[in-house]
Task: inverse folding
């Protein structure tokens, strides 16, 4: 089940604390992106919750002034390690299917919730890799992958992690000039 942070229960808040502790002591290369994450700092924040009432995955919807009204969906997407399917537990295809099911559920939930808004996705990757990402998650019908890279953290950022490929929902194409100045 997918729930918004605004509807979180006391038990899930406790599990969020446990999850933050797991992240802190993990070997995850990107753990700084998830540590001390404040779900209330996002326009919305969604959790995938198991039948056992545990947080399996999460992602936020972000809006920054520099994006001129655009919202970024799928921000800080994270799958809890114990819910990640690994090749040891099954085939590589099983692993891929299980992990992508969380991602797909979150992205489509956010897309459906904000489809009338100006929204985009961003990733640190090549054009080809992002195109594959869009195909895997069945987003190609709703989004258009833009050429070039964009400064998603602001005009002054020199952080390479902030120079990303973006894809905008088709409903946002007529408003693209709002973010064109962020092109790298």
Result:
């Amino acid at each position: 089940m997918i729930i918004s942070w605004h509807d979180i229960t006391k038990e899930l808040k406790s599990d969020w604390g446990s999850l933050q502790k797991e992240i802190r002591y993990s070997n995850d290369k990107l753990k700084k992106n998830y540590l001390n994450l404040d779900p209330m700092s996002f326009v919305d924040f969604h959790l995938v919750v198991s039948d056992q009432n545990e947080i399996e995955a999460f992602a936020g919807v972000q809006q920054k002034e520099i994006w001129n009204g655009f919202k970024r969906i799928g921000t800080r997407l994270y799958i809890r390690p114990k819910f990640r399917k690994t090749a040891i537990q099954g085939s590589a295809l099983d692993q891929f299917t299980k992990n992508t099911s969380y991602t797909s559920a979150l992205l489509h939930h956010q897309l459906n919730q904000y489809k009338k808004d100006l929204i985009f996705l961003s990733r640190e990757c090549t054009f080809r890799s992002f195109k594959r990402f869009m195909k895997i998650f069945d987003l190609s019908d709703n989004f258009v992958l833009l050429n070039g890279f964009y400064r998603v953290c602001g005009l002054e950022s020199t952080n390479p992690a902030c120079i990303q490929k973006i894809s905008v929902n088709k409903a946002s194409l007529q408003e693209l000039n709002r973010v064109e100045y962020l092109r790298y």
